[in-house]
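Final report, Chapter 2: Outcomes

The project's central promise was a pipeline that accepts a single protein chain and returns its three-dimensional structure in a standardized token representation, suitable for archiving and comparison. That pipeline is now operational. To close this chapter, we reproduce one record exactly as it appears in the project archive, with the input sequence first and the structure output second.
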Amino acid sequence: MTPEELPAYSDLILPTVRAVITLGGSATAREVTSQVLTDLAPSEEMLAVVRPTRPEASVYMERVQWARSYAKLIGALESPRRGVFLVTPVQVKRYDPNGRSVGRETVALFQRDAQTKGAERAILVTLGKFSEPARRAAIVTAPTVDLIDGDRLAALVKEQKLGVRSVTRVDPDWFNRFD
């Protein structure tokens, strides 16, 4: 088995957050790792994969650690002190990508929540679109809110290669025109 065949760190972020939830909403780094291993049950072969430059470190275990770090970076977990992780309260609303756009009121409410928490910047993501008044509201008051709509999110996922891969496909009909 090679490192490429193992789950990417990005695939382990959600299981990491779920592990902290399972552990009551807070846990030490060691407890989180143990719970992720219990939940995902990787094979011994998966855990034995190492890099030639670091034969003492399991690639899988490193990715679990990176997942924990990224969960903190994206705001799903917080760490009030070294080695302790808490689940953060996350507000989620569903907007149909083909339905109405996210309006000014939603952005303003999100902005107020971010301001209350002391944020200097905030990011609001939707699979849908933002209305023009929402885009204006995002930049007129502090903290400014970066808006990521469905098209931008898809571009970022593709750019970062998170859960997607490019596949070369030959279109046989293209060659038929030379017959």
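Archive annotation: Helices lie at 13-22, 29-40, 44-47, 59-73, 104-116, 132-140, 150-160, 172-176.
This record, like all others produced under the grant, will remain available to the consortium after the project formally closes.
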